[in-house]
């Protein structure tokens, strides 16, 4: 795979993760359990949208066909999206949303930490900005997972159910392919598998404090980051997100 | 306004002779533009009216998240999505500031929430209208926030300290809301035929509901007179409505849009626009729960509250466990 | 026991090294979450670099009835203010 194509793919993966997860989180606005959480979730979504603009903006630049971040977000179909499946799963209850957030934040924090050392200065610069935002996200989502896991009987049961549902989607974040090999070789990004140890340390510590049991089954779903097979949920999300751009092509908003 | 038809407690403005010493001192302080603070003596009716007014104002901010939130997932660009989300988030913040101001009067946020969800307390009629096309998001910012600001700017001078401070913070943050709405309207009005059609359609549907936001004429209302004397209301509804119309007409003209009122015209003598009254029957119907979205809005708020109970309880239970463990360790 | 999250008062120190200033209140289950909530609610526009939170029930406040005895006596101590003293212009800035 030519290095430039690989870099484009790699940037789509980062950008699509933040785009799709940010979109999901923004669905909570106005519906959260308490005002303070509503405001905090909106902040997380805003950070993720901002990261999307940077990653997809750079992706368009690298591709060199004049596509903007908006073109990439609003005018690609599901098979062209490269986010991990975890990000597109439905919000479920508040606990499932926060568990998904934590499982992603933990990965994102570790990944961004490596990317600040990237040999590509543009990648390193975006990562440095995003890393600060994500350091806060993981603290907040981690604390909430602990609080709800170790809260009431009901909140514990709901958080365990959320973990059981989401855990099979964690493994995909550590899969590697030719794109990753090219990135690792060029010193742009680490081998995803190499992040697993730090991830497990962080996540298991939080889940232990949350009194939750990590599922032992090592099976994991995949197909998001390669675009081979997304869940059915992504199409519905895109239908909503892309509606205006698709219905009124070429309009300026 | 965000606080419409707030029933002022009491029997109207008392003469100085009818007032007790406390009441006279209180009124003197208000007249001198001194701020009344939570622990200060205040008439029971002043307290009761403020709780109603600030509570209704807060509820309006929270319910007001819904019509705009309706378009967050469909915003046409990443930037528009971010701006809209930041704006709706501000509404949540404003609701929060106002609930906190109300709490200084001896009522809790949970109590106020229960009052809203049971239908005993109201929120502004405007949020019972739907947002149907993207230009509605522009129209809400331009007209609804425009009307709200008209009322909120004078309220920064209101007599109750915590309310006044909340309004100062809110006005500072709101300043971008109306501009972002007008910015959307400009893009739509200068856009394709379809976009211009959306813009005109939005103005057609939001014009009269925006005029209703100020509430029916209250120039002869004894209750309003009392609220004005207490400086928890600064202008009459008609004054604010007139100011709003005069401000908005040239803005609509700039956009090349037509305000849906054939009687709208400049009155040289008055130095103001003449305009048609909104349909007050419709207004009272909306207040009574018969607006296009009343049921949906309340369902959404009830769902957020009830579905969120386990989260609030869970986090509190954890906090108590942790604090008990800490105390035991000391 | 109440199921409502306790109320916290929030104090924020801005960019320029001034004292922490009361900016408002919020609800949170404990102090850690109160600080986080304060960050999310009260620093959305870059307002602060340091946050204090105090549970509202722990704030002791002076009572308005004592306003006279508490604050009026200092009215007459005008010599505490620099403008009380006339220094000839020839002396220069002091």
What does this structure look like?
The complex is a heterotrimer of chains A (253), B (330) and C (94). By secondary structure, chain A is mainly alpha-helical. Chain A contains eleven helices and no strands. Chain A has helices spanning 3-26, 35-63, 69-74, 85-88, 94-115, 121-149, 153-166, 178-185, 196-209, 232-241, 243-247. Chain A is globular and about 55 Å long. In chain A, 54% of the residues are buried. Chain B is an all-alpha fold and 330 residues long. In chain B, strand 1 (265-267) and strand 2 (272-274) form a beta hairpin. The longest helix of chain B is centred in the middle third of the chain and has 29 residues, at 161-189. Chain B is globular and about 70 Å long. The relative contact order of chain B is 0.12. Chain C is 18% helix and 21% strand. In chain C, strands 2-1-3 form a three-stranded antiparallel beta sheet, covered by helices on one side. The termini of chain C are far apart. Chains A and B meet through helix 1, helix 2, helix 3, helix 6 and helix 7 of A and helix 3, helix 4, helix 12 and helix 13 of B.
């Amino acid at each position: 795979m030519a290095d430039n194509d690989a870099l484009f793919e790699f940037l789509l993966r980062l950008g699509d993760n933040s785009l799709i997860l940010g979109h999901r989180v923004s669905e909570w606005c106005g519906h959260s359990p308490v005002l303070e959480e509503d405001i905090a979730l909106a902040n997380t979504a805003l950070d993720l949208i901002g990261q999307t603009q940077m990653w997809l903006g750079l992706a368009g630049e690298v591709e060199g066909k004049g596509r903007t971040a908006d073109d990439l977000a609003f005018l690609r179909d599901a098979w062209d999206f490269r986010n991990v499946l975890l990000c597109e799963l439905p919000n479920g209850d508040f606990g499932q949303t926060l568990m998904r957030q934590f499982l992603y934040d933990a990965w994102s924090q570790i990944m961004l930490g490596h990317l600040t050392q990237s040999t590509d200065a543009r990648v390193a610069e975006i990562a440095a900005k995003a890393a600060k935002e994500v350091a806060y996200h993981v603290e907040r989502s981690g604390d909430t997972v602990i609080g709800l896991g170790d809260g009431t009987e009901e909140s514990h049961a709901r958080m365990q159910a959320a973990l059981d549902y989401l855990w099979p989607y964690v493994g995909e974040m550590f899969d590697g392919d030719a794109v990753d090999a090219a990135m690792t070789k060029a010193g742009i990004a680490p081998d995803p598998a190499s992040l697993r140890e730090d991830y497990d340390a962080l996540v298991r510590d939080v889940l232990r404090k949350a009194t939750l049991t990590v599922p032992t089954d090592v099976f994991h779903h995949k197909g998001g980051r390669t675009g081979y097979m997304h869940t059915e949920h992504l199409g519905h999300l895109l239908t909503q997100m892309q509606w205006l751009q698709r219905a009124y092509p070429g309009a300026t908003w | 306004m965000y606080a419409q038809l707030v029933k002022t407690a009491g029997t109207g403005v008392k003469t100085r002779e009818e007032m007790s010493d406390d009441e006279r001192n209180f009124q003197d302080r208000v007249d001198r533009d001194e701020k009344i603070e939570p622990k200060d003596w205040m008439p029971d009716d002043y307290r009761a009216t403020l709780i109603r007014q600030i509570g209704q104002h807060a509820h309006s901010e929270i319910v007001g998240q819904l019509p705009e939130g309706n378009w967050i997932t469909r915003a046409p660009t990443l930037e528009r999505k971010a701006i809209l989300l930041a704006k709706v988030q501000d509404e949540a913040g404003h609701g929060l500031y106002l609930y906190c101001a109300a709490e200084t009067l001896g009522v809790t946020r949970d109590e106020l929430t229960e009052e809203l969800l049971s239908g005993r307390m109201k929120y502004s009629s405007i949020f019972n209208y739907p947002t149907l096309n993207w230009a509605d998001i522009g129209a809400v910012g331009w007209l609804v926030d425009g009307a709200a600001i008209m009322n909120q700017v004078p309220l920064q001078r209101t007599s109750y300290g915590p309310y006044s401070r909340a309004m100062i913070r809110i006005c500072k943050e709101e300043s971008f809301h109306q501009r972002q709405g007008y910015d959307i309207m400009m893009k739509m009005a200068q856009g394709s035929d379809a976009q211009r059609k959306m813009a005109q359609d939005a103005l057609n549907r939001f014009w009269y509901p925006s005029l209703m936001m100020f509430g029916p004429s209250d120039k002869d209302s004894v209750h309003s007179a009392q609220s004005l004397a207490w400086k928890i209301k600064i202008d009459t509804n008609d004054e604010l409505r007139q100011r709003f119309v005069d401000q908005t007409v040239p803005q609509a003209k700039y956009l090349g849009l037509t305000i849906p009122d054939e009687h709208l015209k400049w009155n040289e003598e008055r130095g103001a626009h003449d305009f048609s009254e909104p349909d007050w029957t419709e207004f009272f119907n909306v207040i009574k729960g018969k607006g296009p979205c009343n049921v949906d809005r309340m369902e959404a708020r009830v769902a957020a509250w009830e579905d969120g109970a386990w989260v609030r309880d869970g986090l509190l239970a954890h906090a108590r466990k942790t604090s008990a463990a800490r105390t035991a360790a000391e | 026991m109440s199921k409502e999250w306790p109320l916290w008062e929030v104090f924020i120190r801005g960019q320029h090294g001034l004292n922490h200033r009361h900016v408002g209140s919020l609800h949170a289950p404990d102090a850690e979450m109160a600080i986080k909530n304060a960050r999310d609610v009260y620093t959305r526009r870059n307002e602060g670099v340091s946050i204090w939170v105090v549970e509202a029930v722990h704030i002791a406040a002076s009572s308005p009835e004592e306003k006279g005895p508490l604050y009026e006596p200092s009215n007459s101590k005008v010599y505490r203010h620099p403008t009380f003293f006339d220094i000839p212009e020839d002396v220069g800035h002091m």
